[in-house]
Design brief:
Layout: H1 2-9, E1 14-20, E2 25-33, E3 42-49, E4 53-54, H2 57-65, E5 71-74, E6 90-95, E7 97-98, E8 105-114, E9 125-131, E10 134-138, E11 149-151, E12 169-171, E13 179-185, H3 192-217
Antiparallel strand pairs: 1-2, 2-8, 3-6, 3-10, 4-8, 5-6, 7-8, 9-13, 10-12, 11-12
Length: 221
C-alpha cells in the first residue's frame, strides 16, 4: 500500500521524441510533460546516441552562439566523418525550454545526422534505435520530493549561463520504456563488385582526362 501511495503521489512524466525531416540529416524533437510543477527548475533530457547517429559539435557550437539550442555533448570532440562501425556512443544533455501552450510542458530540438553503414545482404536499410531520454531536473532554489526524485550523476551546470555544477535529479518512477527507430539507407552487398568496377572505371577516366588536359594546355619548362 505504501508503494502504491508513493506512485500515486509521484505523478507520471510523459516523454516523447520525434525525428523531423528526411534523409541523413534530421532534427530530433524532444517534448516533456512533467507530472508536477517545476517552477524555477531547469529541465533537461539526457540521451544516449548509438554509433549510427551523432550530433555535430561544430554545428552545436554555432547554434548555441545564436542562442538557438542549449546542450552539452559527451565527449565534446567526435569524428563526424567516421562510419557507423568505427564510431562510438555519445551522450547528449539537451536543455529544454518551457512550452507557452502548456504550463508543465518543455521542449527542444537538436540537429542529428545518420552515419554511413556497411552494405548489407538482402536489405536496403539499417535500423538505428534511439532509447527513451532520461528526464532531469535541477532546482537550485527549491526542493524536490525525496519520494519522487533521486540525485543523478550529472556533472554539469543547470544552464549554459552558469559555470559551476549543481545537483541534478531524475524521477524514481520512470515511464514505460519506448524507443524511436531511424531507418538509414544502406547499399546492397550483392552490388559491391559492380560498384567497385564502376568506381575504378570512373576514376581512371577522370585521371586520363586531367592528364590529357595538362599535356595539352600545360606549360612545362
Amino acid at each position: 500500500c505504501v508503494t502504491l501511495d508513493v506512485q500515486a503521489a509521484c505523478r507520471g512524466t510523459t516523454v516523447t521524441q520525434e525525428l523531423l525531416k528526411e534523409g541523413f540529416h534530421r532534427d530530433l524533437l524532444v517534448k516533456v510533460e512533467l507530472g508536477e510543477d517545476a517552477g524555477g527548475c531547469a529541465v533537461a533530457a539526457q540521451m544516449r546516441l548509438p554509433p549510427g547517429i551523432y550530433v555535430d559539435p561544430y554545428e552545436l557550437a554555432t547554434l548555441q552562439q545564436h542562442n538557438l539550442t542549449k546542450a552539452v555533448l559527451f565527449p565534446a570532440v567526435t569524428d563526424v566523418e567516421a562510419p557507423e562501425y568505427w564510431a562510438r556512443d555519445l551522450v547528449l544533455l539537451l536543455f529544454l525550454e518551457p512550452d507557452a501552450r502548456c504550463p508543465r510542458c518543455f521542449r527542444a530540438a537538436v540537429p542529428v545526422h545518420a552515419r554511413y553503414h556497411r552494405p548489407a545482404p538482402g536489405t536496403q536499410e539499417a535500423l538505428v534505435v534511439l532509447e527513451r531520454p532520461e528526464v532531469l531536473l535541477c532546482c537550485c532554489h527549491s526542493h524536490l520530493s525525496a519520494e519522487c526524485w533521486e540525485p543523478a550523476e550529472v556533472d554539469t551546470p543547470c544552464s549554459s549561463d552558469h559555470t559551476s555544477p549543481c545537483q541534478w535529479h531524475s524521477t524514481k518512477h520512470r515511464p514505460a520504456y519506448e524507443e524511436l527507430m531511424l531507418r538509414v539507407p544502406v547499399g546492397l552487398r550483392e552490388h559491391s563488385s559492380l560498384v567497385c568496377a564502376l568506381t575504378l572505371l570512373t576514376t581512371g577516366l577522370c585521371c586520363g582526362l586531367i592528364l590529357a588536359a595538362a599535356c595539352r594546355y600545360g606549360h612545362f619548362s
